[in-house]
Amino acid sequence: MSLFEDYKPRKTTDPKNTVPTDLVIRPAMPDDTDQLAKIAYDRDGGEISQIKNRFKHEIAKRDSTDDRLLLVAESNARIVGFARVKWFKPSSSAPDNICPEGWYLTGVIVAKEYRRRGIASALTRARLDWIAERAGKAYYFANAQNEVSIELHEQFGFVELTRDFVYPDVTFQGGEGILFIIDLA
User: Fold this and answer.
1) pLDDT tens column, 54-100
2) CA–CA separation, 143 vs 173, rounded Å?
3) Rounded Cα gap, residues 137 and 183, in angstroms
4) pTM score, whole prediction
5) Domain 21-183 belongs to what topology?
6) What are the boundaries of each domain within the chain?
7) Which helix or strand (DSSP H or E) is residue 141 part of?
8) Contact call for residues 177 and 143 (beta carbons, < 8 A)
Protein backbone atom coordinates (compact mmCIF):
# COMPACT_ATOMS: atom_id res chain seq x y z
CA MET A 1 0.00 0.00 0.00
CA SER A 2 1.46 3.37 -1.05
CA LEU A 3 0.75 6.55 0.89
CA PHE A 4 0.88 8.59 -2.28
CA GLU A 5 -1.37 8.47 -5.32
CA ASP A 6 0.50 7.52 -8.51
CA TYR A 7 1.48 10.65 -10.37
CA LYS A 8 -0.56 10.93 -13.55
CA PRO A 9 -1.00 14.45 -14.90
CA ARG A 10 -4.71 15.21 -15.20
CA LYS A 11 -6.38 14.90 -18.58
CA THR A 12 -9.06 17.56 -18.32
CA THR A 13 -11.03 16.10 -21.23
CA ASP A 14 -11.77 12.89 -19.33
CA PRO A 15 -15.34 13.14 -17.95
CA LYS A 16 -14.30 11.15 -14.87
CA ASN A 17 -12.11 14.12 -13.93
CA THR A 18 -14.97 16.54 -13.37
CA VAL A 19 -15.86 17.84 -9.94
CA PRO A 20 -19.16 16.34 -8.73
CA THR A 21 -21.89 18.92 -9.31
CA ASP A 22 -23.32 18.38 -5.83
CA LEU A 23 -19.96 18.74 -4.02
CA VAL A 24 -20.22 20.58 -0.71
CA ILE A 25 -17.22 21.60 1.40
CA ARG A 26 -18.07 22.19 5.06
CA PRO A 27 -16.65 21.86 8.57
CA ALA A 28 -16.73 18.33 9.96
CA MET A 29 -19.52 17.51 12.38
CA PRO A 30 -19.72 14.80 15.08
CA ASP A 31 -22.02 12.68 12.86
CA ASP A 32 -19.24 12.49 10.22
CA THR A 33 -16.93 10.44 12.44
CA ASP A 34 -17.72 6.99 11.02
CA GLN A 35 -17.31 8.06 7.39
CA LEU A 36 -14.12 10.00 8.13
CA ALA A 37 -12.66 7.00 9.95
CA LYS A 38 -13.46 4.72 6.99
CA ILE A 39 -11.63 6.99 4.54
CA ALA A 40 -8.61 7.25 6.85
CA TYR A 41 -8.63 3.49 7.50
CA ASP A 42 -8.84 2.66 3.78
CA ARG A 43 -5.75 4.79 3.15
CA ASP A 44 -3.61 4.15 6.22
CA GLY A 45 -4.99 1.03 7.93
CA GLY A 46 -4.90 0.82 11.71
CA GLU A 47 -7.48 0.16 14.37
CA ILE A 48 -10.85 1.58 13.28
CA SER A 49 -12.07 2.29 16.83
CA GLN A 50 -8.92 4.32 17.55
CA ILE A 51 -9.32 6.24 14.30
CA LYS A 52 -12.94 7.06 15.19
CA ASN A 53 -11.88 8.24 18.64
CA ARG A 54 -9.21 10.53 17.15
CA PHE A 55 -11.79 12.12 14.84
CA LYS A 56 -14.28 12.52 17.70
CA HIS A 57 -11.60 14.24 19.76
CA GLU A 58 -10.48 16.43 16.86
CA ILE A 59 -14.02 17.57 16.08
CA ALA A 60 -14.78 18.24 19.75
CA LYS A 61 -11.52 20.18 20.17
CA ARG A 62 -12.43 22.43 17.25
CA ASP A 63 -15.39 23.70 19.25
CA SER A 64 -13.13 24.72 22.14
CA THR A 65 -10.16 26.22 20.23
CA ASP A 66 -9.63 28.28 17.12
CA ASP A 67 -6.28 26.79 16.13
CA ARG A 68 -7.50 24.11 13.74
CA LEU A 69 -10.05 23.26 11.05
CA LEU A 70 -11.26 19.93 9.70
CA LEU A 71 -13.21 20.22 6.47
CA VAL A 72 -15.13 17.50 4.70
CA ALA A 73 -16.08 17.12 1.06
CA GLU A 74 -19.55 15.66 0.63
CA SER A 75 -21.16 14.28 -2.53
CA ASN A 76 -24.28 12.14 -2.87
CA ALA A 77 -24.92 12.53 0.88
CA ARG A 78 -21.56 10.85 1.55
CA ILE A 79 -18.21 12.10 2.86
CA VAL A 80 -15.73 11.61 0.01
CA GLY A 81 -12.72 13.43 1.43
CA PHE A 82 -11.37 15.59 4.19
CA ALA A 83 -8.59 18.07 4.85
CA ARG A 84 -7.06 19.82 7.83
CA VAL A 85 -5.59 23.17 8.81
CA LYS A 86 -3.63 23.73 12.01
CA TRP A 87 -1.88 26.64 13.69
CA PHE A 88 1.70 25.78 14.61
CA LYS A 89 3.80 27.63 17.17
CA PRO A 90 7.29 26.25 17.86
CA SER A 91 8.43 25.83 21.44
CA SER A 92 11.11 28.12 22.81
CA SER A 93 13.51 25.15 22.99
CA ALA A 94 12.99 24.15 19.33
CA PRO A 95 15.99 23.81 17.01
CA ASP A 96 16.92 26.68 14.70
CA ASN A 97 15.49 24.92 11.66
CA ILE A 98 12.02 24.40 13.16
CA CYS A 99 9.11 25.34 10.92
CA PRO A 100 7.98 28.94 11.31
CA GLU A 101 4.93 29.85 13.33
CA GLY A 102 1.78 30.02 11.22
CA TRP A 103 -1.12 28.23 9.57
CA TYR A 104 -0.35 24.85 7.97
CA LEU A 105 -2.31 22.73 5.55
CA THR A 106 -1.78 19.38 7.27
CA GLY A 107 -3.28 16.82 4.99
CA VAL A 108 -5.93 16.09 2.42
CA ILE A 109 -7.33 12.61 1.83
CA VAL A 110 -9.91 11.70 -0.80
CA ALA A 111 -11.68 8.34 -1.01
CA LYS A 112 -10.01 6.24 -3.72
CA GLU A 113 -13.05 6.09 -6.01
CA TYR A 114 -13.34 9.92 -5.96
CA ARG A 115 -9.71 10.80 -6.67
CA ARG A 116 -8.63 12.81 -9.72
CA ARG A 117 -11.97 14.68 -9.76
CA GLY A 118 -10.92 18.04 -8.30
CA ILE A 119 -12.02 17.29 -4.74
CA ALA A 120 -8.56 17.82 -3.22
CA SER A 121 -8.39 21.12 -5.11
CA ALA A 122 -11.78 22.19 -3.74
CA LEU A 123 -10.70 21.29 -0.20
CA THR A 124 -7.41 23.15 -0.66
CA ARG A 125 -9.14 26.26 -2.03
CA ALA A 126 -11.56 26.26 0.93
CA ARG A 127 -8.71 25.93 3.42
CA LEU A 128 -6.72 28.73 1.81
CA ASP A 129 -9.78 31.00 1.79
CA TRP A 130 -10.29 30.25 5.49
CA ILE A 131 -6.64 31.02 6.30
CA ALA A 132 -6.71 34.21 4.20
CA GLU A 133 -9.35 35.57 6.58
CA ARG A 134 -6.82 35.12 9.41
CA ALA A 135 -3.33 35.56 7.95
CA GLY A 136 -1.33 36.71 4.95
CA LYS A 137 0.54 33.48 4.35
CA ALA A 138 0.23 29.74 4.78
CA TYR A 139 2.57 26.77 4.83
CA TYR A 140 2.49 23.15 3.88
CA PHE A 141 5.09 20.40 3.72
CA ALA A 142 5.32 17.23 1.70
CA ASN A 143 7.56 14.27 1.06
CA ALA A 144 9.61 15.12 -2.04
CA GLN A 145 8.33 11.85 -3.55
CA ASN A 146 4.69 12.98 -3.32
CA GLU A 147 4.47 14.52 -6.78
CA VAL A 148 0.66 14.58 -6.77
CA SER A 149 0.52 16.76 -3.64
CA ILE A 150 3.35 19.01 -4.83
CA GLU A 151 1.67 19.62 -8.20
CA LEU A 152 -1.69 20.29 -6.52
CA HIS A 153 -0.24 22.92 -4.18
CA GLU A 154 1.96 24.55 -6.83
CA GLN A 155 -1.21 25.24 -8.82
CA PHE A 156 -2.36 27.46 -5.95
CA GLY A 157 0.94 29.35 -5.82
CA PHE A 158 2.91 27.49 -3.16
CA VAL A 159 6.67 27.78 -3.63
CA GLU A 160 9.49 25.85 -2.01
CA LEU A 161 10.84 27.54 1.10
CA THR A 162 13.39 24.99 2.34
CA ARG A 163 14.31 21.34 2.65
CA ASP A 164 16.20 21.94 5.89
CA PHE A 165 13.42 21.96 8.47
CA VAL A 166 11.82 19.95 11.23
CA TYR A 167 8.20 19.72 12.32
CA PRO A 168 7.45 17.87 15.56
CA ASP A 169 6.62 14.17 15.16
CA VAL A 170 6.90 14.25 11.35
CA THR A 171 9.31 12.14 9.32
CA PHE A 172 9.50 11.68 5.58
CA GLN A 173 9.68 7.95 4.97
CA GLY A 174 11.80 7.08 1.97
CA GLY A 175 12.43 10.69 1.01
CA GLU A 176 13.14 14.19 2.16
CA GLY A 177 10.65 16.81 3.19
CA ILE A 178 9.98 20.08 1.45
CA LEU A 179 8.47 23.07 3.23
CA PHE A 180 6.35 25.31 1.01
CA ILE A 181 4.88 28.79 1.54
CA ILE A 182 2.17 30.81 -0.17
CA ASP A 183 1.55 34.55 0.06
CA LEU A 184 -2.19 35.10 0.51
CA ALA A 185 -2.05 38.91 0.68
Assistant:
1) 999 999 887 667 899 999 999 999 999 999 999 999 999 999 999 99
2) 8
3) 5
4) 0.88
5) Aminopeptidase (3.40.630)
6) 21-183
7) strand 137-143
8) yes
